[in-house]
Fold this sequence. Notes:
The complex is a heterodimer. Chain A is an all-alpha fold. Helices cover 68% and strands 0% of the residues of chain A. Chain A has 3 helices and no strands. The mean pLDDT of chain A is 95. Chain B is of the alpha+beta class. Chain B is built from 13 helices and 27 strands. Chain B has helices at residues 16-20, 35-46, 71-79, 83-89, 126-138, 188-193, 257-260, 263-274, 320-339, 346-373, 378-391, 491-495, 521-531, and strands spanning 25-31, 51-54, 68-70, 91-93, 95-100, 103-109, 121-123, 143-146, 150-156, 161-167, 170-181, 197-201, 206-212, 221-225, 234-239, 244-250, 281-288, 291-295, 299-300, 303-305, 311-312, 439-442, 445-448, 458-462, 477-480, 502-506, 512-516. In chain B, the strands form 6 sheets. In chain B, strands 1, 2, 8, 9, 10, 11, 19 and 20 form an 8-stranded mixed β-sheet that branches. A 7-stranded mixed β-sheet of chain B has the order 6-5-14-15-16-13-17, with helices on both faces. In chain B, strand 15 and strand 16 form a beta hairpin. In chain B, helix 2 runs parallel beside helix 9 (320-339). The radius of gyration of chain B is 24 Å and the shape is globular. The chains are: A mainly alpha, B alpha+beta. Chains A and B meet through helix 1 and helix 2 of A and helix 10 and helix 11 of B.
Amino acid sequence: xxxxxxxxxxxxxxxxxxxxxxxxxxxxxxxxxxxxxxxxxxxxxxxxxxxxxxxxxxxx
Amino acid sequence: xxxxxxxxxxxxxxxxxxxxxxxxxxxxxxxxxxxxxxxxxxxxxxxxxxxxxxxxxxxxxxxxxxxxxxxxxxxxxxxxxxxxxxxxxxxxxxxxxxxxxxxxxxxxxxxxxxxxxxxxxxxxxxxxxxxxxxxxxxxxxxxxxxxxxxxxxxxxxxxxxxxxxxxxxxxxxxxxxxxxxxxxxxxxxxxxxxxxxxxxxxxxxxxxxxxxxxxxxxxxxxxxxxxxxxxxxxxxxxxxxxxxxxxxxxxxxxxxxxxxxxxxxxxxxxxxxxxxxxxxxxxxxxxxxxxxxxxxxxxxxxxxxxxxxxxxxxxxxxxxxxxxxxxxxxxxxxxxxxxxxxxxxxxxxxxxxxxxxxxxxxxxxxxxxxxxxxxxxxxxxxxxxxxxxxxxxxxxxxxxxxxxxxxxxxxxxxxxxxxxxxxxxxxxxxxxxxxxxxxxxxxxxxxxxxxxxxxxxxxxxxxxxxxxxxxxxxxxxxxxxxxxxxxxxxxxxxxxxxxxxxxxxxxxxxxxxxxxxxxxxxxxxxxxxxxxxxxxx
Lengths: 60, 537
């Protein structure tokens, strides 16, 4: 198994709005903290170690 | 005034009613002779209405302003017989490129599908568009176009409105059964009826400059996020007619519009973008800020708002003029039916239902684009830049890149005029959607499906036995595949999912009202009654 790099987000614009709206009134530090929590939540959803490693390498 | 265009000056003529002092009641008075007011005049006249158009000026739009015209408004102008001039003069395009810093990250194609008469988009300076429409209005005996007529007061009554109008000869009074306010984002009429106009203001400023240059940039929309020539901001380059190019520079909220408008400050920005060796002349420039907002009700008694007077969007996505023309398309057949007492006044209320729904869709898209282009805080700037840096190599990030979602028609999926499907369908033609075009042959001649849908209601039939359906003035025109036209490429049947038999009821504004898998005259009559707010019941 490997991570999907094809578009897979159901409603891209609505998702982006939801994400940035969540941080609209946050301080930069609070937004960073939220991002860290969000990464961990999504990582748990993925689960697979090889996929997580691939994602980390891509994001670096 | 411009290097490439001489502005016409239209004659002011004192109207007989002002001369005589007799107050006349007109069926329709349109306020504003911009793209919306002129389209309204032509569309209402095409449906047999006599109209008066009032404009406080006596020329066309100064500066090119609106530039991009989309497929659907061009189809509407084609129905009105004025699209050919626009298409001939305009610059056709369908490719957009997006750059982050100095690297291309993303390319999009607006009309990946062949077999449509009208292209995805053309670019054309607004003054040409208005000039063509003024000429068409002047030829039309049903249209009374009055320059240097400024509405200074308006009083509404149950079944008409009174207008006080100022001309070089003084003030006189008119009455109108219906007033169509097409007087733009700063609408005086909106203020006079006390309508709310609320929404979101964006704290940013943009410089738009039109320049004349001979350059071999391709006819594409180029959009830069944070380019090296204009650090920290966005920029846009787009071609118009006559070798005029539209340049757009984001300036930030702290910029001083008066300073930025000076040629000595514009020219270095232009040179940084197009190169120091390219020769150009500055044609027109303006600094603007924008808001996304909508009038509370598109109908205030006998006053109807359309275009920017009804809704204002950011320019990203070309959703201003394009959606305004669709307001008119929606309104004209309804107004004609109500003025002739063929349908109840409730039909006009569906104008608000359908077009406020479309306006909200435009506002949502426009707000999202603006939020992507001008991030509101560091956190969203970080996401924006992450999307852009991933988009170059990774396809998954590209749908998140938002340099403007370009105008497409909003299907009226929640309209009270629709009849719900009672069987299953594939494809896009759900009730409330504007009818798709397709190449066809009529009596051996090449043509287009939309050209058959020009007057009132129509029944578009694929593979079913069809018989005339009597519905008074709303009796639909029968258009049967294989009989009234040949679907030579098979695209009509494909786009309407007609392979297993289909009948579509299509409204006078070319929108699907209902569809069935079998031909049932009673169901069709009921759907016509519904689509006319009960005219037949």
